[in-house]
Amino acid sequence: MKLLLLPCVLLLAACSSAPVQPWERGNLARPDMAWDTDPLHSAMRDHVNVSKEGSSGGLNTGGGGCGCY
Amino acid sequence: MRKARFKKYLPLLLALLCGASNGLQAAPAPDFTLPRLDDSAPVSLSALRGKVVYVDFWASWCAPCTVALPEMDQLRRDLHARGFEIIAINLDESADDALRFIQRMGLSYPVVTDLAKTTPQAYAVSGMPTAFLIDRHGELHSTHTGFRPGDSAKIRKTIEQLLQETPP
């Protein structure tokens, strides 16, 4: 049991990660790393989706005005 | 007895309150000597003792920096003759990115680079951009994290107050 404990502790210690410093965020700041690369395009796509899928709740919740679910 | 004890600790309380309102307690600014991006003579903070210095940490990928640098350049042009200087410390991983950015901006103040990133650690930089205002005595006066259009007006007021101090 004690022999198992040491590798477990070492494995857990290896899980720690150093925080990214503010000056190390150059790659994260690249446009292709953005969560949403084109907000205007996303807004237009969402608008179309809500218009077409409004009866099923659009982008928000399942279920429309019919009270199906 | 209780009053006497209060009087004893009053200066300490006032000092703490003053420190909290400034954001920084008066402490000597960590000195540095860094090479310029254009490979000309290195810049040393201690050589600027007697001036009000604005140490600005920035990078070319940082969006608010593109707002801050031209506004601060105008401030430097206005107040340089009265004893104000800016040192912009670039923290890009590639100096070429920074050089391209500076050539586009046409800045008048010294821009240095710290590839080892020891200076931002010494100043405990918490975000980009972060700037430190250092008074004529070489002590940290205040810090400014982030930058919005118009922030330079507030910074100008503080700098003008510091410029009124007599040099050591």
What's this entry about, in short?
Chain A is mainly alpha-helical.
What attributes does this structure have?
heterodimer, A: 69 residues, mainly alpha, 2 helices, B: 168 residues, alpha/beta, five-stranded mixed β-sheet, 5 helices, 19% strand
Write structural notes for this entry:
- The complex is a heterodimer of chains A (69) and B (168).
- Chain A has 69 residues and is an all-alpha fold.
- Chain A has two helices and no strands.
- The termini of chain A are far apart.
- Chain B has one domain: Glutaredoxin (3-Layer(aba) Sandwich).
- Helices cover 40% and strands 19% of the residues of chain B.
- In chain B, the strands form two sheets. Chain B has a five-stranded mixed β-sheet. A two-stranded antiparallel sheet of chain B has the order 1-2.
- In chain B, helix 2 runs parallel beside helix 5.
- Chain B is globular.
- At the A-B interface, loops of A face loops of B.
Shape of chain A: elongated
Mean pLDDT of chain A: 78
The major β-sheet of chain A equals:
none
User: CATH H level of chain B: which superfamily?
Assistant: Glutaredoxin
- Helical fraction of chain A: 25-40%
Given the C-alpha coordinates, what overall shape of chain B results? globular
Order of SSEs of chain B, N→C? HEEEHEHEHEEH
Q: Quickly give the CATH architecture of chain B.
A: 3-Layer(aba) Sandwich
Please name the CATH topology of chain B.
Glutaredoxin
Figure out the total of helices of chain B.
Answer: 5
Strand fraction of chain A: under 5%
The largest pleated sheet of chain B is described as:
5 strands, mixed
Integer count of domains of chain B: 1
Radius of gyration of chain B: 18 Å
Taking strands numbered 1, 2, ... along the chain, how are they ordered across the largest sheet of chain B?
5-4-3-6-7
- Category by helix and strand content of chain B: alpha/beta
Query: Separation of termini of chain A?
Result: 52 Å
Radius of gyration of chain A: 24 Å
